[in-house]
Amino acid sequence: MRKLLHDGWTLRAVGGPAPAEIAEAVVPATVPGCVHTDLLAADLIPDPYLDDNESALAWIGRTDWRYETTFEWDETEDYDFVELVCAGLDTIARVELNGTVVGETRNMHRTHRLDVSDVLRTGNNVLTVTFSAAVEHIERLRAENGELPHTNHHPYNLIRKMACNFGWDWGPDVVTAGIWRPIAVEGISHARLAEVRPLVEVRDGIGRVTTHIELARGGEQSEPLLVSVEVAGNQVEFAVDADEDDAVVGIGVEDPELWWPHGHGAQPLYPIAVRLRSVESGAELDVWESEIGFRTVVLDTGSDVEGTRFTFVINGKPVFVRGANWIPDDAFPHRVDATRYAARITQAKDAGVNLLRVWGGGIFESDDFYRICDREGMLTWQDFLFACAAYPEEEPLRGEVIAEAREAVARLSPHPSLVLWNGNNENNWGWHDWGWQERLGDRTWGWGYYTELLPEIVAELDPTRPYTASSPWSVTSEIHPNDPAHGSMHVWDVWNSRDYLAYRDYRPRFVAEFGYQGPPTSTTLRRAVHDEPLTPTSPGMAVHQKAADGDAKLTRGLDAHFGVPADFDDWCWATQLNQARAVSLGIDHFRALHPVCAGTVVWQLNDCWPVTSWAAIDGDGRKKPLWYALRRSYLDRLLTVQPRDGGLAVVAVNDTDQEWSTVLGSRRLSFDGTELIASVEPVVVPPRGSATVVLAEDLATPGSAGSELVVVDADTGQRAWWFYRPDKDLELPAAALRVEVEDVEGGHRVHVHAAALVRDVAILADRVAPDAEVDDMLVTLLPGESRTFLVRGTGQADPRRFAAPDVLRTANQLVAR
């Protein structure tokens, strides 16, 4: 019997620097939830995401908080034991039932099951959870034990709590406390299913499901129990002797349909159910249900002439990863429900993304996330939760790490979408290059976690999946962890210190992080920042720019390609466009290196609040121009022009199972549309392969670099462009566009005709209506060409707005002479 305890909670401050009006208040609390959102709902604090409210609310993380509720327990059944099940307590908590301390916890990332058999009473019960201030706790630990290297302000590495909760270079410092995942009381008769791990293998056309089962028994006398496992209509039932608490059962499934990532096949899922029954009474004591998929995964890290591969092989087939990094979708992660996960994962899939890397500074997401990825064919790469810091390997942290990792591996093992366990984010790189060795001396920093403890846990609990020690990682400790020729790498000198054209200097095997910043959409930005006047460096904008020297890096990037606009709206558009251009150039280059490069994972897909960041989808869920660039660069069939050996080449990338036979028409044109030279060449691109066509010198070499371009068209509809100079050095004409708008159900069609060359036509639809969204963006048109855009969600918008210069955007607006 399970009784959720989500009703009737109150919240109050019980220590620390809370303002007087809040220190004396008792407010309704939402469970699951957190202090910030409860205080916000009670109108006691402003929205932490707006303006500079974040810093004004820093006292919350230094205050102790108490949650309390009363619940009825009137069950007449005589249970052998009763447990209080806390799926997520954030973080340093003391749990009391009817005045008795039943548990103390210090880990946000694990479930705590507390035996309350001797404390629970029939009738009213008072449950209290008191949270000690997390900031005060870690500062006290630092003072007692010394500081270990970490990024950002707070020593988040001394606690098992979401690292980015303490602020990141894209996230706010809003240190939370609260019951952030479900809490329930469970009465258990005889025994319960403590853990179920179905591990799937496929060999010689037979699917093998090996289900590992652990039992938790209660009462003074044990008895034999019956366990049944059913998979895809095949059922096995067996007895577990009275002195046994675990069992393993294997079930074979003939010719199962294989699960594939989207773009490679279907995603059939098979139900699995494990039932526990009493031998004596036949009563069902517990049940566990889920879905599994039949597939194999291997991470090929073999050596070749280029170095060390890092290639995912699914069902024996190499898969090029078109990925994006995933961070918590809200700084208050209890607000992310199944609907929001589905929306965000759909946005990723629609952009051509086939893998989401769950980054190690966040959380193990809820089951909804992984279930949706299973159903959508979205591969997931799961970091263990260590990021950009040295972590102590001694107790009490070590024991928490063990419990947390074991629970996560067991919980996520059924999901076919999960294809990699990864030890940490950038910590091995940090030890090499960030000055840690001198600061650490002989202290531990996590190496034992990543090379011994975690791989041992994975080998024990989930040997069906590969494990890597870190990201980036060169597969062996003998090679620098971020060597581009070996394993995975992160490219961050681009953005931090170099122009994005420098992506072309790299020949990586797999890029697990790279990216470029841009502001959110206008509606999101203006909801969050109310500066008057609003400028790139006004106070509220500065709060919503977390990257070190971020504004200067944006300015440097703009200066190299467009110059720096004086008008704020122009600045926003220019930085968004520069972000899109940078990431697109990187992806196109890396994909053109296939099979040397076997994947790209863009930093990052999503945001956790309204902020200038690397995300393609902003903190309010709106698509930035980068999303449209991502979709174009992650097309199944990509056509791109790349510099090669002092000239130019067209690379056709075919990430489908069908041969791509096409005819390429390549032209060098003047900006007025005059054809200067042309060529036609048939090309056959093999399945999951690429083909390179070197352009003739007279086609690749401009007569006037500032007023000419190369355009390549495939007769199957793909197009690629090459401009010889940065936009600021091009003689782009003023954008001469004719716009016609027609009403359609649910929105408008916008017909755009170009009288002259226009680069990167974009309709910033949210400026017309907050919920409006356009179907395409960043479209370059030659003189005389047209494009029709569908804009949904515009309501009764004035059609004239679609032609307004702040809505209908082009690169020409930024540089036209």
Automatic annotation (TrEMBL):
Q: Which domain of life is it from?
A: Bacteria
Name all Beta-mannosidase-like galactose-binding domain ranges. Answer: 9-181
- Tell me yes or no: is Hydrolase among this UniProt entry's keywords: yes
Which family does this protein fall into?
A: Belongs to the glycosyl hydrolase 2 family.
Tell me which InterPro entries the record gives. Answer: Beta-gal/glucu_dom_sf, Beta-mannosidase-like_N2, Beta-mannosidase_GH2, Galactose-bd-like_sf, GH, Ig-like_fold, Ig-like_GH2
Q: Single GO molecular-function term?
A: beta-mannosidase activity
Q: Which residues form the Glycoside hydrolase family 2 immunoglobulin-like beta-sandwich domain?
A: 234-295
Which EC number(s) does UniProt give?
3.2.1.25
State the taxonomy lineage.
Bacteria, Bacillati, Actinomycetota, Actinomycetes, Pseudonocardiales
Task: Please give the biological process terms from Gene Ontology that the record holds.
Answer: carbohydrate metabolic process; glycoprotein catabolic process
Quickly give the catalysed reaction. Answer: Hydrolysis of terminal, non-reducing beta-D-mannose residues in beta-D-mannosides
Q: Please report a single Pfam family linked to this protein.
A: Glyco_hydro_2
- Entry protein name: beta-mannosidase
Question: What species does this protein belong to?
Answer: Actinoalloteichus hymeniacidonis
